[in-house]
């Protein structure tokens, strides 16, 4: 039995609204998981962060300040795909199995719809996470492709 996800404060900010500390924590979490944990050298800073909304799931840390436990990047239609997109979906490794990833996807989808209206969402998912994204209404579309040495597949939620 897994423990329930930690209660978080969710904030969704444009790039210009992020403080240097918030941006640092987001990039640090992305690098911890996507570069170090997945042993994948890739260009995370792809020029899209400035056009994105940044969803932060934070909890007060014992040392004071906010600990970033969940993050996703929301991109408007026409940026990464013709449709709006959710990417860089990541939770802190210590929270795995708590359900926080599902809470993150629910929050990301709701925030995207709140900001830009209900519309299709396309993602470039790591292929091994298809079942996870299917739980959030995404269906595979097209063939598997290799991105940065990892199999991916586009998935769409209508």
List the helices and strands and how they pair.
Blueprint: E1 9-14, H1 20-37, E2 53-60, E3 66-75, E4 85-91, H2 100-116, E5 121-126, H3 130-134, E6 139-147, E7 150-157
Antiparallel strand pairs: 1-2, 2-3, 3-4, 5-7, 6-7
Report the sheet with the most strands, covering strand number, pairing sense and barrel closure. 4 strands, antiparallel
Principal-axes geometry comes out as globular
Secondary-structure element series:
EHEEEHEHEE
Uncertain segments are none
Count of separate DSSP helical elements: 3
Q: Tell me the total number of β-strands.
A: 7
Helix and strand composition category: alpha+beta
Classify the beta-strand content into a percent band. 25-35%
Assign a percent range to the helix content: 25-40%
In spatial order, strands of the major sheet run 1-2-3-4
**Terminal residue distance:** 32 Å
- Average pLDDT, rounded to a whole number, is 88
Gyration radius, rounded? 15 Å
Structure overview:
With 158 residues, the chain is of the alpha+beta class. The model has no long low-confidence stretch (mean pLDDT 88). The chain contains 3 helices and 7 strands.
């Amino acid at each position: 039995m897994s423990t329930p996800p930690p209660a978080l404060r969710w904030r969704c900010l444009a790039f210009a609204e992020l403080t240097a500390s918030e941006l640092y924590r987001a990039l640090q979490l992305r690098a911890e998981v996507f570069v170090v944990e997945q042993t994948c050298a890739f260009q995370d800073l792809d020029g899209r962060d400035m056009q994105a909304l940044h969803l932060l799931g934070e909890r007060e840390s014992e040392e004071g300040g906010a600990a970033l436990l969940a993050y996703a990047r929301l991109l408007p239609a026409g940026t990464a795909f013709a449709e709006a997109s959710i990417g860089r979906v990541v939770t802190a490794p210590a929270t795995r199995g708590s359900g926080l990833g599902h809470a993150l996807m629910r929050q990301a989808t709701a925030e995207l719809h709140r900001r830009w209206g209900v519309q299709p969402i396309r993602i470039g998912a790591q292929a091994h996470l298809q079942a996870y994204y299917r739980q959030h209404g995404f269906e595979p579309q097209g063939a598997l492709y290799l991105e940065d040495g990892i199999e991916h597949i586009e998935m769409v939620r209508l």
